[in-house]
Amino acid sequence: IEERILRIETESEDDSNYQFSLNYINNLNDNGHKLTADLQYDRGKETERSLITEQRTFPNTLELSAEDIIQKENEKEFLGQIDYVLPIGENVQFEAGYRGSFEETETDYTLFEETGTTGNFIRNDSLSNIFTYNENVHAFYSQYGNKFGDFSFLLGLRVENTQLKVDAENVSENAPLNLNFDKDYTGLFPTVNLTYELKENENITLGYNRRINRPRSWFINPFPSRSSEANVFQGNPNLDPAYASAFDLGYLKRWKKLTLTTSIYYQN
Which of 10, 21, 28, 86 could bond 40 through an S-S bridge, CB–CB 3.0 to 4.6 Å? Predict the structure, then answer.
């Protein structure tokens, strides 16, 4: 071992969150024909402060410069959803809906570095930054289910549009960085679920669906954040969402006091 360093991080965190929600249900008849709507607003604030001290313990003892990190995060999110269900006969059902989510996250990251071991801290303008992330998602979806004897199916399709806007800047006079970009992408996400009843208490199922996994603001933020000089995290603003296709083959068997469920799952 050439060198050993002891790092101690003391962290305090202050959070405040509140949420408002409004729900509407209209049962158009007693057969399941209904309309529902949901509205939700979330607001959260978080202030996190970390004092990091370091000491070299090998090959000799030496006090190293400390760091004081203050991170403030303000988050606002609005969610709106409306669903319509229309039963058609005894074994047929049609559903359609819309879901929209609108999110804004502002992160104010400030790093103060100690001058030697004097106890005097100076703001590091090249790492301190303000990062604002907006994500708006619109999704329209529908599904149709039917049953023919022992066979039933459920087909669904979702059209989803995502709009991203990023505004990142620091206040360094030597190396100012201002990053602004917008992204807009639309995708189709089908769902297929098939069920065959072998007996009253036994069936096999086959399912397929396509999914999307969007990078969160933390992974897009291009400014490096650190808990020490050797522990640095930096996001990539060029990240694109990941898409997955998932298949599932299942078997279910029920007895009076026991149920057996097995499945084979594959995701690409």
Answer: 21
What pTM was computed for the model?
Answer: 0.84
Cα three-residue angle 108-114-119, rounded to 5 degrees: 120
Rounded CA separation 18/1 (Å): 50
Residue whose structure tokens are 């709106």: 80
Q: Which residues contact 30 (CB under 8 A, 6 or more apart)?
A: none
Q: Are 239 and 215 in contact (CB under 8 A)?
A: yes
Can you tell me the distance from the alpha carbon of 133 to that of 16, in angstroms, rounded to the nearest whole number?
A: 20
Count Cβ atoms below 10 Å from residue 169 Cβ, excluding itself: 15
pLDDT digits (tens, 9 = 90+) for 197-239: 999 899 999 999 999 999 988 898 888 887 777 778 888 888 9
Q: How far is CA 123 from the centre of its chain?
A: 31
